[in-house]
Amino acid sequence: LSSAAFFPHTLSTDDRTKWQLTRRLFLIDTISGRQSSQTSTPQVIRVADKIELQIRPQTRSDGLIYLPLLRVHYAEIRQRDIVAGATIKVSFSVTYKADQTSLEQGLSISVSLLSVMALILSLFKTHGWRMRSKKETIDGGTVVQFVFTSCGLFASVFFIVLFGAALHMLTFYKGQSTPDVYLPTSSQEQLFLDFLIAACVMMAFRVIHLIWQQTHADIFLLDWEQPVSAGNYPASGENTNRVSIWRTYFVANEWNELQTMRKFSPLAQWGGLLLLLEVAGFKNVCTYNPASQFKVGVDDYSGPSSHILRFAVASSLYLMIELVQWVFFFFYTRYVEDKIRQFVDLCSLSNVSVFVLTNVAFGYYIHGRSVHGRADTDMWQMNQQLHREEEDLCGKRGLLPNSDDQTFEIAVPAKLRMHYDKVMAPLQEQVLTQSASNGQSRSGGVSERSVNAYVAMTKFLSAFIGKSLQDLDYHVVEKKLLEQILNLEFNEPLEGGIFYNDTSSNSFTSVLMFGHEWTLMVFDILLLTALDWALTDFVLAIVLTLLITQALMAYRDSAGRKNLAQKTLVDQRFLI
User: Fold this and answer.
1) What pLDDT was estimated at residue 486?
2) Are 350 and 342 in contact (CB under 8 A)?
């Protein structure tokens, strides 16, 4: 009731100080619409079409409430519309509107405190990136890296706070016997929605930046195979002592298949979520009805859905399915199949090592040098080699003697990087220019210049790994605990390189989508719940989320394949 006009029907503000309450109301007004006399036919009839009974619980009381407030909205219908058969839809609702100041303060304080921690962690991560990129000053690239790193961490903080708050409401609201916890109304959910939208947008930026980083990494496949007789990789002319390139193509193709592989099955994730929500009936738990009903009959009461409860239910089920998949794949990869470990084994069997340089002075190395010296063998020789390994009749596959460690993080020395750029960068630009102008030619392959550069780089990296270069060496060390936690290196490679032993054997998955499951998981949940908030339809939200994520993975696959072909000089037609 507005203080400017003392009439019950002019309510236009939520400011309670401007209300003038009344004890009288009407449902139908057929008097004020009469124009000539009180006996004439009314031209306009006013009808109470929306009646809302607002109940405000008293704070710190066992179910006690303040005096209820009845809010009535009136609609007008003209006489000619009545004659034409027009109708008015009438609704009656009961709303429990509690003071949500404590919830808003809790969200704000939690987000603020955790955001400070995220900001500090972003500074550490950006500092590590700057050291790996050999940047002496804070330039534009450093600022951009800091912004995108902060986006990912802030989005994770927002999600953790929102999920905790929503799960708390779901648990205590549905489990209470006496009214104690009340859900926010639609108007009171605005702060929650603002945090959700901000988190979704920031995580989207982080995922896009992650894809850009992965599709611009430098990759080189080092083939250790030597010809049977003398002569090393002739550039032209017929020679039967050439080394087969098919092993390198095979390794490149397997790497290409790993680029978009995730730790868990997206099909099982989204299919299981859809079954639980729509078939098992978990979507029925998302209503304002305090009772938890999974199956609602035709005659059963089902209140409107709460956006916060929908967020809590969808997020909880997604995380539950993710946990089930984690347990399943933990045993599956240990006892059945581990594709990451299989790729490392494939490198050893193919006699091919993998260099991945993600920054100017940092990258990853997979040591694939065969302990048997050769991999271009027939089936009988291959079986004999595997049998010798089973019987421990040969050396171990590791980089160091009597070691099984094959995966490393490497701090790249400046001399190695300069030599790599000098040899490979012009060729990669040439390949990129040809691809942009002509596309993938079916009649041509790599040029003779590219072959010679590949051979030269192979010899150089082979000598570096074999410690045959006098002015360029490396040593293998273990990363300190703090370095592992912060994911940065305290020592800089001044003269020689530093190979950090990879205790997890899969640190190189950071250049694959496989190594960023947390980021992808949070992005999936935030995108799903944001779409559901707008659509209030789990099925449509899941379908749209699946389409968007698959489109991103399709782009990652296409850009990753193109980058792999450009950087390894492997014809893209062989990347199936």
Assistant:
1) 83
2) no
The enclosing H or E element of 353 equals: strand 352-359
- Count of beta carbons in the 10 Å neighbourhood of residue 541: 22
pLDDT number for residue 165: 93
pLDDT at residue 224 in the model: 92
User: Is 173:183 a contact under the CB 8 Å cutoff?
Assistant: yes
Q: Residue holding tokens 């050291």?
A: 131
Query: What are the mean pLDDT values of the chain's consecutive 10-residue runs (576 residues total)?
Result: 42 66 86 79 87 82 79 88 84 82 87 95 93 89 95 96 94 80 82 94 97 94 80 48 83 94 93 94 87 75 85 96 95 92 93 94 93 84 86 86 91 91 75 58 61 87 90 90 86 84 90 95 97 95 96 95 88 82
pTM to 2 decimal places: 0.86
56-64 CB contacts, 8 Å cutoff, 24+ apart: 56/96, 56/97, 56/98, 56/99, 57/96, 57/98, 57/179, 57/182, 59/99, 62/178, 63/178, 63/179
Which strands sit side by side in the sheet containing 474-477, from one edge to the other? Answer: 218-223, 352-359, 362-366, 407-411, 497-501, 474-477
- Pairing status of strand 352-359 against strand 218-223: antiparallel
Q: At what angle do helices 266-274 and 538-568 cross, to 10 degrees?
A: 180
Question: Cα separations (Å) of 399 from 404, 474, 505?
Answer: 8, 12, 13
Tell me the C-alpha to C-alpha distance, in Å, between residue 15 and each of 32, 437, 552.
Answer: 28, 65, 46
**How many angstroms separate the CA atoms of 321 and 271, rounded?**
10
Of the candidates 153, 126, 128, the residue with the CA atom closest to the CA atom of residue 142: 126
Rounded to the nearest 10 degrees, how much is the dihedral formed by the CA atoms of 315, 183, 191, 209?
0
317-342 in b/e form (b: 16+ CB < 10 A) is bbeebbeebeeebeeeeeeeebebee
Whole-number pLDDT of residue 7: 46
CA 221 to each of CA 427, 457, 508, 558: distance values in angstroms, whole numbers, following the listed order = 15, 10, 14, 20
Of 257, 315, 215, 212, residue with least CA distance to 521: 315
- Burial of residue 465 (CB within 10 Å: 0-12, 13-18, 19+) is buried
